[in-house]
Specification:
alpha+beta, Alpha-Beta Plaits, 4 strands, globular
């Protein structure tokens, strides 16, 4: 699994101008089974995506598709980890 951390480099007005394209990017990868959960950081200076991929190169390729990356609006940090445990009631906890 991977944690993708986004840190905004642009003003929130620029971020919001590209938000619908970013959400379309997210939806594409949720539908493909790559993204597990995502959301804004608090304070709102970026976001987090939990992703599943066969390797780091696949995740890096996905990041290249993000409009926030394409328009140089955010920096991206990819952290790989091995998920060894999870809460059985995860859907309830993140609702």
């Amino acid at each position: 699994m991977f944690v993708i951390e986004l840190t905004y480099k642009a003003d929130l007005t620029e971020i919001d101008a590209h938000m619908s394209a970013h959400v379309a990017f997210l939806n594409k990868h949720y539908a493909a089974g790559h993204f597990v959960v995502s959301g804004r950081k608090i304070p709102r200076d970026g976001g987090i995506i939990l992703a599943i991929g066969k390797d780091r190169a696949e995740i890096e390729a996905m990041v290249q598709e993000d409009p926030f990356h394409q328009h140089h609006l955010a920096e991206f940090r990819i952290i790989e980890f091995r998920a060894s445990q999870r809460a059985r009631d995860l859907p309830k906890r993140i609702a």
